[in-house]
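Q: Here's a chain of 88 amino acids. Please give me its 3D structure as tokens.
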Amino acid sequence: MFERRAELVVLAAASACVMLCFAATAGATVLATMRGVVHDPSHRPISGAHIEIAAVTSQFRTELQSDAQGAFEINSLPVGEYRITVTA
């Protein structure tokens, strides 16, 4: 097994993997869903990868693991710029 650490800055509002969910009321909170797949250089999925998502402009931070197919998903994510660190 190998260890790979990658950092990416993701603009959640502009990312193709983000879907925005808008509330119908004025002054509504805007939230997003972020989805992705962790894979090795040969594009084989990596299960159990540790994923840390941290907002660049706030204190928001969360951690999760990729599933058996290397996929991950986080819901109710405040829209913004994030740093994603993956360790496998």
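Q: Can you summarize the key feature?
A: The chain has one domain: 5-87.
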